[in-house]
Amino acid sequence: MAISQKCQYALRAIYELALHQDEGPCKIGAIAEAQSIPVRFLENILNSLKGADIVDSARGKEGGYYLLKPADSITVGEVIRFVQGPLGPVECTSRIDDDCDFYSDCVFRPLWDKARAALENVYDGTTFQDLVDQSENICRTPQCSCNKKR
Predict the structure, then answer these.
(1) Domains of the chain
(2) Which of 46, 86, 120, 137 has its CA 20 to 30 A from that of 8?
(3) What number of other Cβ atoms are within 10 A of residue 132's Cβ?
(4) What distance in Å separates the CA atoms of residue 30 and residue 21, rounded to the nearest whole number?
């Protein structure tokens, strides 16, 4: 399963909000610049994520977007499913495929099921706090490109 560009933008936007979770709302322009996301796409993505109760926004001079839950309770899998649907290497692993002539005796289905389970394990086992913590361990030198965007 390939992660779409829209989904990557959503993941990066939530990651940026997680980086600044204790600092109050983040301006959309700051998120877009820090994560190299076109503002017009970011507006749509963040509005969509509001519907998933992942983010919310505050109006006014000090307004912007913020996470509704702590970063350690939002998983990568939750966001991927919201943005692009069920996890799986092929479509038939995420639904009963009545259109497939081989579904009931498909030799590949156990393989696809194992691959889906592995994806779910990785994505559902990774929170945005894990990513923040990981970035702090990676980006400890002033030369790191991560530090230039913060």
Answers:
(1) 5-149 (1.10.10.10)
(2) 137
(3) 17
(4) 14
